[in-house]
TrEMBL record:
It comes from Zingiber officinale. One of its GO terms (molecular function) is serine-type endopeptidase activity. This is Subtilisin-like protease fibronectin type-III domain-containing protein. It comes from the Eukaryota. Signal peptide: none annotated. One of its GO terms (biological process) is proteolysis. InterPro entries: Peptidase_S8/S53_dom_sf, SBT, Subtilisin-like_FN3. Pfam families: fn3_6 (PF17766). Keywords: Signal.
Length: 286
C-alpha cells in the first residue's frame, strides 16, 4: 500500500447480518468515490454470478480499473467451500508475516505470560493490580442486560475515579476535540429557501497539540487543500526548545459550497527542513 494512501470504510454489516443490497451499494459508492482498491472480508458461500452481489459489484469495479480483493472464507477443508470465486476477483486464501509482535504481562506471583499484540503497551507498575472478575463486580440480575446499577460501586477500582478517565459533565464533547494526527471535517451546509445550495461560508475549527520527540527546531506549516476548502493554520510556525515540549495550534477550515463529489482530501505538513510530520485531511458535506 502506498504510504500516502487513504482508507475509506463502508459499513455493510448489521446486527441482523450483511445484506446483499448493502454490499452492492457500498461497492458502487466506493467506485464512485474514486477508490483504487476494494478489500472485502466477507463470506457468503458460492452461487451463480448473476445472483452474487459481490461478483456483480466486483465486475463493475474491475471494468473501471479498480482492483478487488476478497477473502476465501473460513469454511473447509471439504471441497466446494471456497467463497468469492469469480475470476475477476483476487481471492486471498491465507497470509503470513515473518515476524511477531510480542506482549508480556507479569502476574503477582512472578509468572510471565507471553502473547502477541500490535501494541505492546506501556510497562506496568511495579505494584501489581488485583484481579476483578465480572461476576463479582456486577449485579447478577441485571448484568446480562447492562441495566442501570449493574456495577457495584464498592467493587469498582479507584482507577475509574482518576481525572484522566473521568469526563467533566459540564463540558460538551465532540470527536473533533480528540487529539488525532488526522483531520476529519464535516461541513453542515445550511439550506436556502427556494431550494439549491447555500453560498454562506461554513467554518470549522480544530485544535491539535504536538509533542517534540526530537532535537530542538522550528517547524513551519504547509497545506495542500482542494479548491472547495480554504485552510488556515494558526500559528504557522512552532518553535520547540527541548525534547518533550508541547505546542498547540488551531486549523480553520472554511467552505462556501458543496462540490459535486461526496468527499475531498488534503494534507497538512509540519517540517523543520529535516523532519516531516504529515496529517491527512478529509472533508465531507451534509
Amino acid at each position: 500500500m502506498s504510504t500516502r494512501a487513504r482508507i475509506a470504510v463502508y459499513k455493510v454489516c448489521w446486527q441482523a447480518g450483511c445484506f446483499s443490497s448493502d454490499i452492492l451499494a457500498a461497492m458502487d459508492k466506493a467506485v464512485d468515490d474514486g477508490c483504487g482498491v476494494l478489500s472485502l472480508s466477507l463470506q457468503g458461500g458460492t452461487t451463480d454470478y448473476f445472483n452474487d452481489s459481490t461478483a456483480i459489484g466486483a465486475f463493475n469495479a474491475v471494468s473501471k480499473g479498480v482492483v478487488v480483493s476478497c477473502s476465501a472464507g473460513n469454511s473447509g477443508p471439504s471441497s466446494s467451500t471456497l467463497s468469492n470465486v469469480a475470476p475477476w476477483i483476487t481471492t486471498v486464501g491465507a497470509g503470513t508475516i515473518d515476524r511477531d509482535f510480542p506482549a508480556y504481562a507479569v502476574l503477582g506471583n512472578g509468572k510471565n505470560l507471553t502473547g502477541v499484540s500490535l501494541y505492546s503497551g506501556k510497562p506496568l507498575s511495579s505494584s501489581p493490580y488485583p484481579f476483578i472478575y465480572a461476576g463479582n463486580a456486577t449485579n447478577a440480575t441485571n448484568g446480562n442486560f447492562c441495566m442501570q446499577g449493574t456495577l457495584l460501586p464498592d467493587k469498582i477500582q479507584t482507577v475509574s475515579r482518576q481525572h484522566n478517565v473521568t469526563c467533566d459533565r459540564k463540558r460538551i464533547y465532540s470527536v473533533s476535540d480528540l487529539n488525532y494526527p488526522s483531520f476529519s471535517v464535516g461541513f453542515a451546509m445550511p439550506s436556502v429557501a427556494g431550494g439549491g445550495g447555500s453560498s454562506k461560508t461554513t467554518t470549522v475549527k480544530h485544535t491539535r497539540t504536538l509533542t517534540n520527540v526530537g532535537t530542538p527546531g522550528t517547524y513551519r506549516a504547509t497545506v495542500s487543500s482542494p479548491e472547495e476548502v480554504s485552510v488556515a493554520v494558526y500559528p504557522q510556525g512552532l518553535c520547540f526548545a527541548s525534547t518533550g515540549e508541547r505546542k498547540s495550534y488551531t486549523v480553520s477550515f472554511s467552505a462556501a459550497s458543496q462540490p459535486s463529489v461526496s468527499a475531498v482530501f488534503g494534507r497538512l505538513v509540519w517540517s523543520d527542513g529535516k523532519h516531516v510530520v504529515a496529517s491527512p485531511l478529509a472533508f465531507t458535506w451534509t
